[in-house]
């Protein structure tokens, strides 16, 4: 349904359709838009990364935050977790094929920010 919004200078047609479920962009942002999630995916794109190494790569994120985001990414099927040693515990994270499908989006976002000096 199109409605008309009357402004000071002109009438503008707006889309006021509401849906019971979130739109595609919103659903995608729920997956990739969480704080540090896209950065984590970007850092694990070239191969397995150990937890402590990943935490260092994400300088502003606490280890607790990195752990939470990795659990979310793993439950969403974007990364795989592998325990490589139990004493002391050593864990690596690697991007899945599903996670890899998001890299084009992240590459375009990177290009957009660089092109616009953001």
Structure description:
This protein has 118 residues and is an alpha+beta fold. Helices cover 45% and strands 23% of the residues. It is built from six helices and five strands; from the N terminus they run ββααβααββαα. The protein has helices at residues 24-32, 37-43, 51-57, 63-75, 97-100, 103-115, and strands at 2-6, 11-15, 49-50, 79-86, 89-95. It has a three-stranded antiparallel β-sheet. A two-stranded antiparallel ribbon has the order 1-2. The chain is elongated, with a radius of gyration of 19 Å. The two termini are 36 Å apart. The model has no long low-confidence stretch (mean pLDDT 88).
Q: What is the share of helical residues?
A: 40-55%
Proportion of strand residues: 15-25%
Number of helices: 6
The major sheet is characterized as: 3 strands, antiparallel
Radius of gyration: 19 Å
**Structural shape:** elongated
Topology record:
Layout (H helix, E strand, L loop, with lengths): L1 E5 L4 E5 L8 H9 L4 H7 L5 E2 H7 L5 H13 L3 E8 L2 E7 L1 H4 L2 H13 L3
Antiparallel strand pairs: 1-2, 3-5, 4-5
Keywords:
118 residues; alpha+beta; 5 strands; elongated
Could you write a compact summary of the structure shown?
The chain is of the alpha+beta class. The chain contains six helices and five strands; from the N terminus they run ββααβααββαα.
